[in-house]
C-alpha cells in the first residue's frame, strides 16, 4: 500500500509540475501579447488601426484574466478534489483564446463601438454601458469567484493538515508542500487584478459621469496601472524556485536535444513461436 502511495505521489508530482509549467507558459504568452497592445497607444483617428488596437487589448486582457481563472480551477481540482486535470488543457485553450476572441469581436460586429478612448483605442465614451458589460462587470464577478475559491482551498487544506500528519510519508509531505505552495502563490492573483483595476475603473466612472471634463491625474494613474497585471503575473511566476531551476542552460539544452532523440522501442517475443529458416 505504501509503495502504491509512493508511486502515485511521485507520478502526481511530476505530472502536476509539468502541467503547471505549461499553464505558466500560456499565461506568460497572453501577458506578453497584452502588453504589446499597450505599446500601440497613441492618438489614432477612428479607423481600421484603431479598431485593431481596441480588439487586441480586449482579446488579451480577457485572455490573461481567464488563464488566471483556469489556473485557479486547476489548483482547486488538484489540491482539494485530487483530480487530474491534464485532459482539461484543451478546454482551457478554448476558454482562454476562443472565448476572448468572440468577446473582443462582438463590439465590432454588433456595432462599431471601438474608437479613440483616451490613451488607447477601446470602446468609445458614447457607449459607456458596453465598457462595463464587456469588461469591468465580468472582471469583478470573476475576482469575487476567485476569492471564494481561494478561501475554500485554504480552509480545506488546513482541515486536512491533521490527516496528512497522521502517518509520515515523504512523498505525501512533498505532494502536500507543492499543493500548498501553489495555492499560496496563486492566492495573490485576485489582489493583483483588484488593485490594478481600481484606478482604471475610477477613471472610467468619472468619464461616464462627466465625459467632457476628464481628470488628468486619473488618466495618469490609469495609464500606469492598466498595463501592470501581465507584468506582475510574469514576475510572480518568475519568482517560482522550481521554474527558475528548470530554466538553466543545461536543462534547456537537455530538453531541446531530447526532442530529437529516438525513443527506445521494447518488443516482446515468445520463445514458442516457430522460426522460419
TrEMBL record:
The chain crosses the membrane at residues 23-44, 64-83, 90-110, 130-153, 186-205, 217-239. The keyword Membrane applies. The keyword Chloroplast does not apply. One of its GO terms (molecular function) is G protein-coupled receptor activity. It is a multi-pass membrane protein. Keywords: Membrane, Transmembrane, Transmembrane helix. InterPro entries: GCR1-cAMP_receptor (IPR022343), GPCR_2-like_7TM (IPR017981), GPCR_cAMP (IPR000848). Pfam families: Dicty_CAR. It is found in: Membrane. GO terms for cellular component: plasma membrane. Its main location: membrane. One of its GO terms (biological process) is adenylate cyclase-activating G protein-coupled receptor signaling pathway. Residues 1-157 form the G-protein coupled receptors family 2 profile domain. This is G-protein coupled receptors family 2 profile 2 domain-containing protein.
Amino acid at each position: 500500500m505504501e509503495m502504491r502511495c509512493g508511486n502515485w505521489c511521485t507520478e502526481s508530482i511530476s505530472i502536476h509540475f509539468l502541467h503547471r509549467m505549461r499553464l505558466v507558459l500560456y499565461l506568460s504568452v497572453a501577458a506578453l501579447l497584452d502588453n504589446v497592445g499597450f505599446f500601440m497607444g497613441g492618438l489614432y483617428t477612428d479607423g481600421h488601426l484603431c479598431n485593431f488596437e481596441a480588439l487586441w487589448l480586449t482579446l488579451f486582457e480577457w485572455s490573461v484574466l481567464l488563464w488566471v481563472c483556469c489556473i485557479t480551477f486547476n489548483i482547486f481540482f488538484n489540491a482539494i478534489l485530487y483530480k487530474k486535470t491534464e485532459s482539461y488543457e484543451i478546454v482551457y485553450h478554448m476558454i482562454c483564446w476562443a472565448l476572448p476572441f468572440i468577446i473582443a469581436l462582438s463590439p465590432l460586429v454588433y456595432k462599431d463601438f471601438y474608437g479613440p478612448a483616451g490613451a488607447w483605442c477601446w470602446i468609445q465614451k458614447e457607449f459607456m454601458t458596453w465598457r462595463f458589460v464587456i469588461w469591468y462587470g465580468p472582471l469583478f464577478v470573476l475576482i469575487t469567484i476567485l476569492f471564494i475559491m481561494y478561501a475554500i482551498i485554504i480552509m480545506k487544506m488546513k482541515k486536512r493538515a491533521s490527516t496528512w500528519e497522521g502517518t509520515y510519508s515523504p512523498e505525501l509531505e512533498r505532494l502536500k508542500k507543492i499543493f500548498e505552495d501553489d495555492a499560496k502563490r496563486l492566492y495573490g492573483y485576485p489582489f493583483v487584478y483588484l488593485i490594478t483595476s481600481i484606478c482604471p475603473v475610477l477613471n472610467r466612472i468619472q468619464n461616464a459621469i462627466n465625459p467632457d471634463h476628464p481628470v488628468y491625474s486619473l488618466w495618469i494613474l490609469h495609464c500606469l496601472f492598466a498595463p501592470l497585471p501581465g507584468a506582475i503575473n510574469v514576475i510572480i511566476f518568475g519568482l517560482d524556485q522550481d521554474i527558475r531551476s528548470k530554466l538553466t542552460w543545461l536543462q534547456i539544452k537537455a530538453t531541446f536535444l531530447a526532442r530529437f532523440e529516438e525513443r527506445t522501442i521494447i518488443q516482446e517475443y515468445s520463445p514458442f513461436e516457430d522460426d522460419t529458416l
